[in-house]
Amino acid sequence: MRGFFGVGVQSISKEQNLGNLVRTTHAFGGSFFFTIKPDIDLDLVRVSDTSDAFDHLPLYNFDSVDNLRLPAGCQLVGVELTDESIPLPSFRHPTRAAYVLGPEMGSLSPDLLAKCDHVIRIPMKFCVNVGVAGAIVMYDRMVSLGRFADRPVAAGGPMDAHLGNMPAPVWQPRRVIRHPLKGRKVTE
């Protein structure tokens, strides 16, 4: 997959949700993780982060939205359930993106929404857990930007050799021949 992405949260209040989201970011190949004014003890996150993602991903902690800094050319994508946000299935992910999710019992702040280049929503009846929402967005990014075969028209998967779905090889019986100079039997 080309480009890079990071994931962040604003005002998160549950260590296990953050640990879950960091672990998922690590699993999907995220480049960094950030928090904006978290309301948790970051040391307690390791309880639910069984992959030790903070040992593999840089963590940036910002004390306010105004202090948020992203890599050059990185677009900020808010994940928020609003009438104006773009439904995830209709969204083209930026090559360089930072996705930000809100707190468990609230929404992204108006000042953070104003800073976003794009705001997307997962089309569903109501909000889900912040870790689940982050995983859905990262999965959609992987599927839409990754190099996968097109989905077949019928149920099931493609049978392309490069995907490892080749039929079992047909083995030919070995032949015994005599070495022309030494007269020994060799197998071919």
Automatic annotation (TrEMBL):
Ranges for domain tRNA/rRNA methyltransferase SpoU type: 8-139
Gene3D superfamilies cross-referenced by the UniProt entry: 3.40.1280.10
GO molecular function: RNA binding; RNA methyltransferase activity
CDD domains (alphabetical): SpoU-like
Record keywords: Methyltransferase, Transferase
GO aspect biological process, one term: methylation
Protein's name according to its UniProt entry: SpoU rRNA Methylase family protein
Organism, as annotated: Micavibrio aeruginosavorus (strain ARL-13)
